[in-house]
Please model this.
Amino acid sequence: MKNKKIMFLIAIILFIIAGILILVNSKIGKESLSRRDIRKITKEFYSFYYDENNTDDNVKNYLRKYINTGLTISLGDMEIYIENKSNGGTTYSSLEKCDRANSKITIYPKSPFGKDDYELKFDLVCY
Model:
């Protein structure tokens, strides 16, 4: 009788632990997917932004100003910019649950200041 109670208690504890792990992993999985898609959309945005500001003979001097402060843009503004530049843009279903106005991405250009030379900081509001 005592063994049955102990086994039942262990089963309940394992069930609770499994439930917590599932909840945590699903949230982490969604955020990871959102970040992956944001990296893709940021690459597309930065490519357009880089080309647009490369009209100056020395784009490196222009980007050098933003090494410490970064270029901050909301997710919504980034999508609008890409849509205007690419006649449609790309949609990412993983971003549907992100607040477009309050989710911000900061792009920090870094040397040698090519199209792929930057680091990202995320400030996401996703549900």
Summary: Helices lie at 2-53, 59-64, 75-86. The mean pLDDT is 77. The chain has three helices and three strands. Residues 33-123 form one domain.
